[in-house]
Design goal:
mainly beta, two-stranded antiparallel ribbon, 0% helix
Length: 88
């Protein structure tokens, strides 16, 4: 990985054309100078044909919601204050 300038952001390229179709996991392990560590993993879906069938979505205000994502601490249980939590 390469640090982007002096920012806290890092970059790593990944050529998805070199892997089979399907779900893949990319894991990053970070170790600080003082020995502390953190790990993060994301899932990536690849399709060499270039075709992707998006999951079905219901119409409404939450059309762009990602839903629960427990791996990232998003439990999908928050009830407000927003339109999903109570009727206005």
């Amino acid at each position: 990985m390469w640090q982007i300038g002096t920012s806290p952001m890092w970059l790593r390229s990944w050529n998805s054309a070199e892997v089979a179709d399907g779900a893949h996991s990319i894991t990053v392990l970070v170790r600080c100078a003082d020995g502390r560590m953190a790990v993060d993993t994301i899932s990536v879906l690849t399709s060499q044909s270039g075709h992707y069938n998006a999951p079905a979505r219901k119409s409404g205000d939450n059309v762009n919601a990602i839903g629960a994502y427990p791996e990232k601490g998003l439990l999908g249980t928050q009830l407000g204050p927003n339109r999903n939590g109570r009727k206005w």
